[in-house]
Amino acid sequence: MTTAAGREAWRLIHDLVFKGTANARMTQARSVTGISPGMMKTLLHLRPGEGVPMRELADHWNVDASYVTCLTDSLEERGLVERRPHANDRRVKMVALTDKGVSARSEAAALFYRPPVGFRALTSAEQRQLRDLLRKVAAADLEIADGRIGARQSTLRSG
Amino acid sequence: MTTAAGREAWRLIHDLVFKGTANARMTQARSVTGISPGMMKTLLHLRPGEGVPMRELADHWNVDASYVTCLTDSLEERGLVERRPHANDRRVKMVALTDKGVSARSEAAALFYRPPVGFRALTSAEQRQLRDLLRKVAAADLEIADGRIGARQSTLRSG
DNA sequence: TATTGTTATACTCTATAACTATA
DNA sequence: TATAGTTATAGAGTATAACAATA
Q: Rounded to the nearest 5 degrees, what angle is found at the Cα of B62, between the Cα atoms of B75 and B106?
């Protein structure tokens, strides 16, 4: 069961993400790199050295393939990603970070994933406590989300 | 200081908000009411019976006044809000929820603010613990955010 | 003269439909 | 025939600039 305390906790998370210093930081992360939210999402999703089929991105976010083309074009224009052929299937194009993309990504990730300053109000022990509680919640939630929605997470991912 | 545990906690919050069941629920909330994210934000910002000057909305979200006009137009077309004159200043227009807007708002809020199902993995005691920790963080964070950014929060709000 | 809100306009983000190449 | 990606196009979302009314 979710209690009143749980509901308040969720609301506080909302405030933290959408109202506090984190929001300003996301805006900053985008203006530093000069890219759109969609491009940012793509940049953060890609891993250095690992190509991802365009189709997989479209499925993962439930967006149209043409939009992935558009995102990839924009990122490619800026030299942040490149299209690579798939080893076995010549229809497939893999999107991969360039060197420039790797550094842009890590710059953005540093801003993006750094906790909002309010975290400094917690002691080290409290931060660990918070982490442990959230681990439980997030694990349960993702498990359920995958069970319900993402039956599509087939491990296509090949080099 | 923010510790490694704190950073992980923040990342888990991210996952919870953007990847888990919560994300699906936000989409659902929008499709139920059939309105855009901007309109949703406006709807949730307004309080039943309380009008807000359009200028205040623009300042609060740091968006252009013309965009607030556009949002208000769209919501007004759907009969969810109405423009009302300001008591003292005839330049100012107040945006206020209609009856239909009040019920649309509470329907959306119910979906929006209900914790993701992963919360059920926590006992009642743990939910309280989580809430207490988040209260500390959110309070500190909003305080800092207000100190840095929102020096503009002047209490114009009049009926 | 400064401020609130609107109109006209354009640019970005995202989707639909028709298409090409490969399987 | 089905699938991966592209192109052309159109619809939302958001901003800029010029404007009208009021202060």
A: 35
pLDDT tens digit string along A86-128?
999 999 999 999 999 999 999 888 888 889 999 999 999 999 9
pLDDT at res. A107:
87
Residue A139 to residues A101, A132, B4, B109, B144: CA-CA distances in angstroms? 30, 11, 19, 25, 31
Residue bearing tokens 């901007």: B38
Å separating the CA of residue A66 from the C1' of nucleotide C18: 12
- Supply the pTM of this predicted model: 0.81
Q: Which residues of A touch B121 (CB under 8 A)?
A: 136-137, 139-141
Length of chain B: 159
With b for 16 or more beta-carbon neighbours within 10 A and e for fewer, the B86-103 pattern comes to eeeeeebbbbbbbeebbe
A-chain CB neighbours of B7 within 8 Å are: 113-115
Cα-Cα-Cα-Cα dihedral sign, residues B90, B91, B92, B97: positive
pLDDT, tens digit, for every residue of A6-32? 999 999 998 898 887 887 787 777 777
